[in-house]
Design brief:
The structure is a single chain. By secondary structure, the protein is α/β, with parallel strands linked by helices. It folds into 3 domains: 5-190, Pyruvate-ferredoxin Oxidoreductase, domain 3, CATH 3.40.920; 195-428, Rossmann fold (3-Layer(aba) Sandwich), CATH 3.40.50; 435-535, Rossmann fold (3-Layer(aba) Sandwich), CATH 3.40.50.920. 33% of the residues lie in helices and 19% in strands. The protein is built from 18 helices and 20 strands. The strands form 4 sheets. The chain has a 7-stranded mixed sheet, sandwiched between helices. A 6-stranded mixed sheet has the order 2-3-1-4-5-6, covered by helices on one side. The longest helix has 18 residues, at 156-173.
Length: 541
């Protein structure tokens, strides 16, 4: 036990690529497996090349792998884009018009178009693949059928028939292709659930008493808006979809002034429109959370892909000088925790807080403990609610005195600037500390932030020469982390952007000179195999 297995399915949009993949993940969870998933898709409603992949194991999984064990091509012409991901042990199911001959991997013709004729629709190819996968992975078909029935109430009959067709096909054609032969621990009451980062953010918002969320849809942050919109009645919250990001930021500012616990969500292009409100919140002392889920820029960039190019933008968002908090979760679990924490920090210090994530964490799923019933103790803002007798609070965008009245005299201006900046030492005491993985006597140190940490930890499994420092509070930066830079001169920075923005940020605060920088900026996340190659590690899990 303990082997990592990766299954991937590819095909055009409109054929349920992600739906079937997530169903497989749910079935794996029911068999006691832990997992991470990842999907890719172009900005198209139909067509194109879409993928979903899941890496699972009986032990904790930190990242999906690039190398694939089982691959399904829903339609002709899709497996060809993934030849570099196959190896001698890979099994590729394809539906091409001509047989595939290759000595590198095992190719099995899976005539999905023909098999679908028995159901009367080509739309069930994905569920046929699910049946094949369950046989090859030695998964209990009855458990799989229960999960399928729950998911497809309106088309239960057709989907169950498709599953049986796929399972039967595999029984006849794939008996020698089973990848896992040992029995699973079937857990009917599994405490692990599948959450992507946007759902985890939403549950954190609810757990800490968030009650007002406004956002304009922007991939890859839209999932948080959609999730919270579904929770309006059950959790007695307000969710609004205004005409643009400027309106969304303005709405949460007004709601914060009125006493609500608020947040808004967007990606880089939308956040560019919100920065005036960031600055307004900084001077008017409004507790607002901005959930920034990054994608490649500039401008429209790559709407459905991933990047960490907004770090310095977030840290320097809003004009003028005022305290701002920027938290960077590296996993779905941390996204939940930082979502709740951000509301409390915003309320405690009455200022803007940014939770910066990316598509990799925001739209990828992970097996974590059930988040739906969790509650977090709330810190309530000291700002009085409008209408409170004998209490007044003026939310003034103009420089103002302690009562909120506009001022221009130099003495009071200086006092107010210093009053705001004096919060920083207090803020630093409340922020999440950096995660340090490894031992202080490690010969080499990797420094990172956000989503790459999962692939790094997966890549370093079994290695003792390396330690990893994951910076989670990227602003203000804890001055104590400089101690980690002292125990070795062999320091590598790894991040998903082209200019190593974390390096620039650390150089601005410390005598920081990494010996190596590993960057990726093609819209794709890091995979463990890439990191091992870049570090010169020859290791297979």
């Amino acid at each position: 036990m303990g082997k990592y297995t990766t299954v991937k399915i590819a095909g055009p949009a409109g054929f349920g690529i992600k739906t079937s993949g997530q169903l497989l993940s749910e079935i794996l969870l029911a068999h006691g497996q832990q997992l991470i998933d990842y999907s890719e898709y172009p900005s198209l409603v139909r067509g194109g090349h879409n993928t979903y992949q899941v890496t699972f194991s009986s032990r904790q999984v930190f990242s999906v792998f690039q190398q694939v064990d089982i691959f399904f091509s829903i339609s002709p012409g899709h497996y060809q884009s993934h030849l570099s991901e196959f190896n001698s042990s890979s099994v590729i199911f394809y539906d091409e018009d001509k047989p595939v001959k290759s000595s590198k991997s095992t190719y099995i013709s899976l005539p999905l178009r023909k098999l679908s004729e028995a159901i009367g629709s080509q739309n069930f190819r994905n569920t046929i693949c699910l049946g094949v996968a369950c046989f090859c992975l030695n998964l209990d078909p009855e458990i799989a059928k229960k999960i399928i029935s729950h998911k497809f109430a309106l088309t239960e009959k057709e989907n169950l028939a498709a599953f049986d067709i796929g399972y039967g096909f595999a029984q006849q054609n794939c008996s020698n292709s089973r990848l896992i032969h040992e029995s699973y621990i079937i857990n009917h009451k599994s405490v692990l659930k599948l959450y992507d980062g946007n759902e985890a953010y939403g549950w954190g918002f609810l757990a800490a008493g968030g009650n007002f969320f406004a956002a304009y849809p922007m991939t890859p942050a839209s999932g948080a808006l959609h999730f919270l919109a579904q929770k309006q009645q059950s959790h007695h919250i307000q969710v609004h979809h205004p005409e643009d990001e400027i309106a969304a930021a303005s709405m949460v500012a007004g709601a914060a002034f009125a006493g609500a616990r608020v947040a808004t969500g967007t990606s880089g292009g939308g956040f560019a429109l919100m920065t005036e409100t960031v600055s307004f919140a900084g001077v008017a002392n409004l507790p607002i959370v901005f959930y920034l889920v990054s994608r490649p820029g500039p401008a429209t960039g790559l709407p459905t892909w991933t990047a960490q190019g907004d770090l310095l933008f977030a840290v320097n968002s809003g004009h003028g000088e005022f305290p701002i908090i920027v938290l960077a979760p590296g996993s779905q679990q941390e996204t939940f925790e930082f979502s709740a924490l951000s509301l409390n920090l915003a309320a405690k210090f009455n200022l803007p807080v940014i939770v910066i994530s990316d598509k990799t964490v925001g739209e990828s799923g992970a097996s974590i403990a059930d988040l739906s019933g969790k509650k977090v103790k709330q810190i309530i803002s000291s700002k009085p609610i409008p209408g409170t007798p004998s209490h007044e609070y003026l939310a003034n965008s103009y420089e103002h005195d302690d009562q909120g009245y506009s001022i221009e005299d130099s003495a009071t201006v200086k006092k107010m600037v210093e009053k705001r900046l004096a919060l920083i030492p207090k803020i630093l005491k409340t922020l999440p500390k950096a995660n340090f993985y490894g031992t202080p006597d490690a010969k080499k140190l990797i420094v990172t932030w956000g989503s790459p940490v999962g692939a790094i930890l997966q890549a370093l499994e079994g290695q003792t020469d390396y330690a990893v420092l994951q910076i989670r509070s990227v602003w203000p930066i804890d001055p104590d982390i400089k101690k980690f830079f002292a125990f070795t001169k062999d320091i590598t920075v790894i991040e998903n952007n082209a200019t190593s923005q974390l390096t620039s940020l650390l150089k601005s605060q410390f005598d920081f000179n990494p010996s190596k920088i590993i960057l990726k900026y093609d819209g794709r996340p890091f995979f463990p195999e890439e990191i091992r190659q870049q570090l010169g590690i020859n290791h297979k899990s």
